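User: Could you check the structure of this?
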Amino acid sequence: MACSKIFSGDIPELTNEIIEYFRNDFSTLYSCILVNRLFCRIAIPILWEDPFSIPTENYDFIKIYLYNLNDDDKIKLNNYGIDKKLFPSNILFNYPSYIKSLNIQIDYSIESWVAALNNCSIKYTCPSDSTRLIYKSLFKIFIENGADLHTFVIAYVHHDYLNDASELILKNPNFIYNIKNLKLEGISDLPKIDSIISLFSLNCKSISTLHFQFSDHRLNENFSSCIINSQQSLKTILFKYNSFPLYHSLLSLKNFNCSNTLKKIIFYGTDFKDINILKEVFEQLNCLESIHILYCHSLNYNFIQQIINITSKPFKLRSLYLIKSIDIKLLQLLLQKSKNYLENIGFRTFIIDNQPNTSKQLVEKILSYCKKINFFDFSYFYTPEYIFPSFDLIKNSGQNLNYISIEFHFIPNVDIRLSSIVLKELGQILPSKLEYLKLSLSINTNDFKIFLDNFQNTFIKKLVIRNIIFLNNSQNNFVEKIKKLVIRNKTKVVDQDILYYIEKYIMKKRKVKYLAFRDDLIGLELYLLKDQVKKFESYNIKVQKYDDLNINWYKYIEETY
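Assistant: Sure, the predicted C-alpha cells are below.
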C-alpha cells in the first residue's frame, strides 16, 4: 500500500499516515515539526488537539492562546501582574481552532502557569479573579476561532468555573455540536448544570462514547435517560460509581437506536441491588460485543440468575474484577455463562468468605471455563494460600496471557513476606512474551535478583516496578529529613542496588521495551535520572513516568475494546 502511494506520487497522504502513527509519541511529533513545512503542517494540529493533557509540567502554551485576547483583556491581565509582553507578537497557525478535546478542569493548568510566572506554589483556594479571567477568555478564544470539539469532559469542577463555561457554551452551542465523546463525572446539583446537560440532549445527536457519574439522584433520573434516548450512534456507555438506581438509564438502552448501535457497556463501581431488568435489557442489545463489570457490588443470587436467564443472546462478559464476597457456586455459574468470552479477570482474597480451599477451586473454574485469559490481576492478597493457585493460573494460561498486575501495600509484615514469595516464584513461570507486567511490591534486593535470574527467557514490552517501603514512626521522621535534604540539594535518588540489577539483567540484556521504576523511600523515579535514562535509551529502552506506563483496568479496556 505504501509503495503504491510512493509510485503514484501521493507523498502528502503517505506522510500524513506516517505522522498519524506517532499520534501519542509527543517527542517524535515535536521532531517532525523541524523536518520540513509539510511535516510541520501535519504535526502541529495533532499536537494542539489536546494540549492540556500532554504529560508535562510546562503550561507555557497558554500564552500562545492568549495572543488572541483583545487589548482590553490584556490590560486587565496586566493589572493582575501578567505582563502582555509575555504574549507572542505573532503566531504562525490558528492554534485555538485545532483543539478537539477539552476537560472543563483546565483551571489547574491555568493555576500552574500563573504560579510558574510568579515563581510560587499553587494555592488551592477559591478561584482568583485572574484565573477566572484567563479561564473564561480561553473558552471565548476557542469559540471565536471556530474550534470544533470531539471530546468534552465535565468533572468535579468548581461551580464558578462551570458557570463561566456554561454561559459561553449556551450562547454558542455549535462549539459542542459535533462531540463524539462525552464524560460527565462527579456531577452535582450546581447552578446552570440543568441547562448545560439539557443542551447535550437537544444539540448533540452523534455521541459515540458516553460516561455517566452523577453525584445527585435528581440529575441521574432526569438527564441520563434523556441523553441516551437522543443519540443516534451510541457505541460505548460507562456507568461509574452510581449509588442511585439505574432503572431508567438501563431501560433507555432498549430504544431502537441503542439496541442496534451499542457495542460496549462498562459497569464501574455500580451497585446492582434491586435492579431486575438485566435480562430484559441485554436481550434487546443486538450489536453488543463486550460487557465489563469492574469493582461492582451486589453480585448476588438475583444478579447471577438474571444473567443465566438470558437465552436469546450470548452474555459477552469480557472483564470481571471482584471486590466483594461471592459464593463459589454463584461465581461458577457466571464463569460458565461467560465461557471463553471472559478475557480479563481480577479479584481480592476476601471475595469468597469462610469457604475452605476456595482459592484453588476458583483457579480451577477459571481454567476450566475461560480459555482466553489475557489480563490477570491478583492484587491485595493476604495469605500464600491464595498466591500459589494464582501461579497455577499464570502457568497454565500459556501465551494467551499478556498482562499481569501484582500489587501489595496494605499490611507491612504480611506484604513483605508475600512480596518475597512472588519474587522467588514468578520469574520461572512467566510466558516467553508479555505485553505488560506490573510489580508493586516490598522489594528485597536478593529476592529481586532471583526474579531477574529466572525471567531471562521472557521479553516484556512494558515493565512497571514500584518498590513499596514500610517504615515505623521514627524511621518516617528520619526519611522525611533525608527527603528535605535531597530536595534542598536537588539530588535525585533511587535504590542503587535495585537500579544496579535492573541495568545488569534488564537493560544490558534488552529484556524490555518500556520501563518505569518508582522508589517509595525517597519518592523519586528512574525517569528523573537523566544520565541513566540516556544510558537505557542507548539500549533502545524507553524509560517513562510510572503513572504514564501504569495501566489501570479502565484505561486498558478503553484502549483494547
